UniProtKB/TrEMBL annotation:
Belongs to the replication factor A protein 1 family. PANTHER family: OS03G0429900 PROTEIN. It comes from Trichinella pseudospiralis. Residues 142-160 have a biased composition (Polar residues). GO terms for molecular function: DNA binding; zinc ion binding. Residues 8-82 form the Replication factor-A protein 1 N-terminal domain. The keyword Zinc applies. InterPro entries: NA-bd_OB-fold, NA-bd_OB_tRNA, Rep_factor-A_N, REPA_OB_2. This is Replication protein A 70 kDa DNA-binding subunit. Residues 127-141 have a biased composition (Low complexity).
């Protein structure tokens, strides 16, 4: 009995390139290409050439969390797939070995108008401490932050109008450098202090926020002028509509967030508080805990999340940085988890000074560096 071949979605490629497609879409993967750098530790990526029977496009990237579909043979050449959000949530509805041919007579979709914003790479040097674990953000077990957020002030950036708020909201997990027009609705789950940085090209300042929606997380960083624009605007636990910025490959050395990309605010970025009923559906925090006994086997270049009981709280210490001779505040916490493994967690700066817990609280820490 002949296999039933699903029908492809008409004008799916055109809709995706113009960002007007209504999901789900059924398209055919004509072929894929493995993209990897033998000199890099970055995860392998796959570029897909897809077709809707009329048009085709070779500019699609498969989200790395779906790599197993290719690696286990489920997603093969000529397979038909159902796309939900930029090839993140997809279902193989007919394997290529069953389809056996390219459907329709697709033309290259690159002839259609498509605006792609170029990405700009900004690098900064962040000092590393020699402690066994360095905390980035500390949270009590009831998910109430131990840090006090500063009061919000009015934004001076161009507002997003009510009409614009009705436009399509992109899931965070769907963002990639290949998109130029997007808007996300996300909750700020973490906000850093302003940090000064210096390298061969000069000095500057920055702060970062972790953003979350129902689909996932992304790290966003504001440099220099954008640091001044948005530091008082973005507040922990609040929800915002954010549009415009530079999407680039994430440096996993500085984040524990499970996302291949990160966001840098730019002069085109617009941020507006979101006050509709949808904000109550957004999660407040997401952890991916690593057991203490597994920490020595983790990649030291990546940040991790931990959960443990405080056995002992060290005194607040004053240290002097060797390079800058700047005074630093430091506090050691001695933790243990259910593997009966003990570790030393070092808090720096405001986190060290503002840690007021007593006794043996259970704490969750997001974004910890292991040394």
């Amino acid at each position: 009995m002949a296999a039933v071949i699903p029908q492809l979605t008409e004008k799916a490629i055109e809709g995706m390139l113009n960002q007007e497609a209504k999901c789900p879409l059924v398209v055919q993967m004509v072929q894929y290409k493995k993209i990897s750098d033998p000199h890099s530790n970055q995860t392998t990526r796959y570029r897909l050439h897809i077709s809707d029977g009329r048009d085709s496009s070779g500019t699609c990237m498969l989200a790395t969390q779906r790599n197993e579909l290719i690696e286990n043979g489920t997603l093969d050449n000529l397979a038909i797939i159902k796309k939900f959000v930029v090839l993140v949530d997809l279902e193989v509805v007919a394997p290529g070995r069953t389809v056996g041919k390219v459907l329709g007579d697709p033309k290259n979709g690159s002839k259609m108008s498509m605006e792609i914003q170029s990405t700009i790479s900004q690098e900064c040097e962040v000092s590393k401490n020699s402690s066994s674990l360095t905390a980035s953000s500390t949270t009590k077990s009831d998910n109430n932050s131990t840090l006090t957020a500063s009061s919000a002030t009015k934004s001076h950036n161009s507002p997003i109008t009510q009409g614009e708020q009705q436009k399509i909201i992109f899931p965070i997990i769907s963002l990639s450098p290949y998109q130029s027009k997007w808007c996300i609705r996300a909750r700020v789950t973490r906000k850093t202090d302003i940090r000064n940085w210096s390298n061969k090209r000069g000095d500057g300042k920055l702060f970062s926020v972790d953003l979350m929606d129902e689909s996932g997380e992304i790290r966003a960083t504001a440099f220099n002028q954008e640091c001044d624009r948005f530091f008082s605007v973005l507040q922990p636990k609040q929800v915002y509509l954010i549009r415009g910025g530079i999407i680039k490959v994430a440096n996993r050395q500085f984040t524990s967030i499970n996302n291949d990309y990160e966001l840098a605010f730019s002069g085109e970025t617009q941020i507006e508080p979101c006050k509709d009923e949808s904000v109550y559906k957004l999660p407040s925090l997401l952890f991916r805990f690593v057991k203490f006994d597994k920490i020595p086997r983790t990649n030291r270049k990546q940040l991790i999340d931990i959960l443990g009981v405080v056995e002992k709280i060290g005194e607040l210490e004053h240290k002097v940085a060797r390079a800058s001779q700047r005074e630093l505040l430091k506090r050691d916490l001695f933790l243990v988890d259910d593997t009966k493994t003990a570790i030393t967690l070092t808090l720096w700066g405001n986190e060290a000074e503002n840690f007021k817990e007593q006794g043996h609280p259970i704490i969750a820490v997001k974004g910890v560096g292991y040394h």
